[in-house]
Amino acid sequence: MRTVLSAVFMTLLSVPFGNAVSAVVPADLQTEYCTEPLGMDNPKPAFRWLVPDNGGKNVKQTAYRILVASSLELLNKEQGDIWDTGKTESGNSTQVIYQTQPPVCSTAPPRKANEGKDLQSAAKYFWKVKTWTTSTSETSQTEHESDWSEPASFVTGLIAGNDALPEKSVAGNSPGEETERWTIDAWIKHPSAAENKCIRFRHSYLCTEKYKSAYAFVASVGYHELYINGQKVDDRHLAPPVMNYLKRIPYATYDVTKYLKEGKNTVAVWTGAGWARNEAFKMKQALYVRLQMTGENGECCGFYSDGNWKCAESDTEETTEKTRYKNFGGELLDARKSEPDWCQPDFDDSGWQKVKIVDNIKTPVASAFRTPATKIIKEYKPVSVTETKDGICVLFPENFTGWAEFPVTGLNAGDKVTILTADDTEHICDFNQKSIFISAGKGDEKFRYRFNYAAGLHVTLQGLKNKSDAENIRGYALATDFRQTGRFRSSNELYNKIYALDLWTFRANTPEGTTFDCPHRERMGYGETGTSTGWGIGLPNYQSGAFYAEMVQNWADVQEESGWIPHVAPVPYKSGGGPLWSSTGLDIAWEHYVHFGDKRVLETAYPMAKKWLDFCHKNTKDGLLQPYLKGQMLFLGDWAAPGGRKEFGGTPQATYFNNCVYAWNLETMAALCKALGKNDDVQFYEKRLADLKADIIKTYYKKETGQLMDGGQVQQAFALLTSLSGDSNVRDHIRHALQQAFTEKPYFDMGSSGLPVLLHYIIDSGDKAANEKAAEFLNSIKQPGYGYFLEKGETTLPEYWEVNVDSKIHTCYTGITAWLMKSLAGIRPNPKEPGYRRFIIAPQYVKETDWVEGETESPYGIIKSRWERRGNTVTLKISVPPNSEAEVTLPDGEIKTVGSGEYTF
């Protein structure tokens, strides 16, 4: 096929593909994967920018200069009083680590010109960058020095070692009342309230000046909302994101500068127990507040939680109802106890109690900034409102995780409205998702969730007197507030709907800083779905670098001393799973590195993975990994495959699967150690891997058929994915047996843990026959399959490969987007050159669709791929961002490497 290069990226046929916008300056500046992060506690953050496109091809950065300043005024004067790198010869634009000068007392060499000052806690820094680039045309090479970028900023949190309390404190400075001497900077709690009560805290102080900046740091065992002078300070909910409270208690950072005023100020916090009540923690609600203010003269002062604060039970509490497995249930809102002005400065709190100081919290606090806040991402009106014998039934357009809000009129004091939620229309309540509103009899009232949520599409209201109240109900979807950075479309509408279904299921299961298996029944971060969604959905489709760096730390936090890693994180809970679940931290760390090239995440994972693999090695017999925990649910293989197939611990199928997982882990660990320069470890793990592969082949390979174990799709794919045999003839036989498995079962014969295995093989290998089968399976509306779910009207993915199941909002089969983006559109990172500096575009030109377009945001910018078939001709159009290269597989099979620019083949 003749290859044609074009300097113009042609207009696409279905929807505009978008023309690349030339930037004359570096753009999209990020610090630690975030735009304008708030509460960053890394003393040496990484900076990233997009290299400007100067209109030529093969644009490459040759040098950069970064300025970091303590004020915007200094930055605008090109004075980097915190850090000035000078002109630095480097092509790196994605992982530029802040460099600090040695301490004054250090015996290290004197400060170098490009070393900066230590970053301080609770400070705002401003930075910008300029670059030097080269680009080529058909006749010449051009050098270009950019102008300075637009300013970016970041606000530090409580940086370890640099977070000393301000010398001046206004704690306890309550106007008009006697104050007691208390230790400032304390954890506080209600002295006597039951743990299911939602508590309000408040304290006032006199402000004698206007502050230049003010930041609040609020840590809570449980959820909180922050109010200053009667106003909620931002639009986040369910703050902070959940972590393992036994290892780290998260704090949220707020910019409260505009909320403070001269005179009396009231700081108020509303809290709910949330995860503190979970049996993994069984901790008491507690609150820590610290405001750090800087005056116009540069002097700092602080305001803290201490024994002068007051507290009271609020009108909201968590019900004693429980979901099937955990402490969630619903909320009770008793409007008779409402105090609407409780957070206002002039509120009379004389009837409130003094708080109790909590002195037994020794767990360190950690910034929650790496996990985007939980916010409302969609609003719904009801599709229908129907009066039935069960109550007034409200149907929303799709399953979602979040809140219902509705007016309540015409009730007498003490009248009760019950809110029941289900994820189908066959039941009125699933998993005890039951909340209660008790009227104060004041006429116009309102119910809304505060520190809990429900998941479903069907709400039944019992006790309402006016149907119009139900008709005015609104639904609000809550989710971790990612920015979407990837998109897929094709001429095959079924593929498009599957893509949307997969992404929405992911969002519905990612409501508070982690990925759950389901948002109602369990709310547990099971590992196998974390692996499949991270690789398949999160990284290629959302700005999620910080999110997954945090997830790796969450998995490290739950590891036990023995080296064993529980099957869920960040909540340490002994639930069903197996080695694939436990190795999620290692798997996500590697995928994060492949996507971003950030070795720091590998450094976080390394000690965890080392202890995990030592644990596995201690539990081998005759060279093979054996079940290491009692109970058939604790050494699972593939789970919830078609036909209800489950590979329980102790079965030969689970043992084979888990030895393949062990091999995959060893292979990943060897690559991780190579990236970190740990050459002795590389040899160590490669030796273990070689021995394990030989033992797996010896035990499970059937020479006469080419099958391993039972010859199933996942079993064969796992052998190929982990290269169990170096013998090419053996691999050919295994590949042939895989094709037989596809023929015998013409659908994805995989469960939740088999999904990342099967898809990884199909995508990473580029196996044309396997990809053709994947296209065929995904184009079907028969059971089992994704099209079947859509045909049955599902709006999120159910737990099993059928629709008559308990949970219809489950991550069991999420991640199929990986095939759409990475095989069909063909865009994927190159693990041999991590970070997308040199990536792969290798579309699969399948017959089930006439055109495909996809895009994903790499660390270097947007990558685009579009192919179209007309008759016997296939045209491929791509866009490669500056400072990167693409290894492109053309429609005729030729592989070509191109630099930045737009091309038509």
Give the structural class. alpha+beta
Instruction: Tell me roughly what share of residues is in helical segments.
Output: 10-25%
Task: State mean pLDDT (0 to 100 scale).
Answer: 92
Number of strands: 46
**Spatial gap, N to C terminus:** 9 Å
Number of helices: 16
Regions with little confidence, pLDDT below 50 for 5+ residues: 1-23, 103-111, 172-183
Strand content: 25-35%
Radius of gyration: 29 Å
Major beta sheet, specifics? 15 strands, mixed
What general outline do the C-alpha atoms trace?
globular
What does this structure look like?
The chain is α+β, with helices and mostly antiparallel strands. The strands form nine sheets. It has a 15-stranded mixed beta sheet that branches. The longest helix has 24 residues. It is globular, with a radius of gyration of 29 Å. The chain starts with 26 loop residues before the first strand and ends with a strand. The N terminus is likely disordered.
Compact summary:
By secondary structure, this protein is an alpha+beta fold. 22% of the residues lie in helices and 29% in strands.
Describe the protein's topology.
Blueprint: E1 27-31, E2 38-40, E3 46-50, E4 57-69, H1 72-76, E5 83-84, E6 88-89, E7 96-97, E8 124-136, E9 141-145, E10 152-156, E11 168-169, E12 187-189, E13 197-207, E14 211-221, E15 223-228, E16 231-232, E17 249-255, E18 263-272, E19 286-295, E20 300-304, E21 310-318, E22 331-334, E23 353-354, E24 356-358, E25 365-367, E26 374-380, E27 384-388, E28 391-408, E29 416-422, E30 434-438, E31 445-448, E32 454-462, H2 467-471, E33 474-480, E34 487-490, H3 493-508, H4 527-541, H5 545-558, H6 579-582, H7 584-596, H8 599-618, E35 620-621, E36 624-625, H9 652-675, H10 679-700, E37 701-702, E38 707-708, H11 713-721, H12 728-744, H13 754-765, H14 768-778, H15 786-791, H16 817-824, E39 827-828, E40 838-841, E41 851-858, E42 861-870, E43 873-880, E44 885-889, E45 895-898, E46 901-904
Parallel strand pairs: 2-10, 11-20, 17-25, 22-30, 40-44
Antiparallel strand pairs: 1-3, 3-7, 4-5, 4-6, 4-8, 8-9, 8-10, 12-24, 13-18, 13-21, 14-17, 14-19, 15-16, 15-18, 19-20, 21-22, 21-23, 26-33, 27-28, 28-31, 28-32, 28-33, 29-30, 29-32, 34-41, 35-36, 37-38, 39-40, 41-42, 42-43, 43-46, 44-45
Helix pairs in contact: 4-7, 4-16, 5-7, 5-8, 7-8, 8-9, 9-10, 9-11, 11-12, 11-13
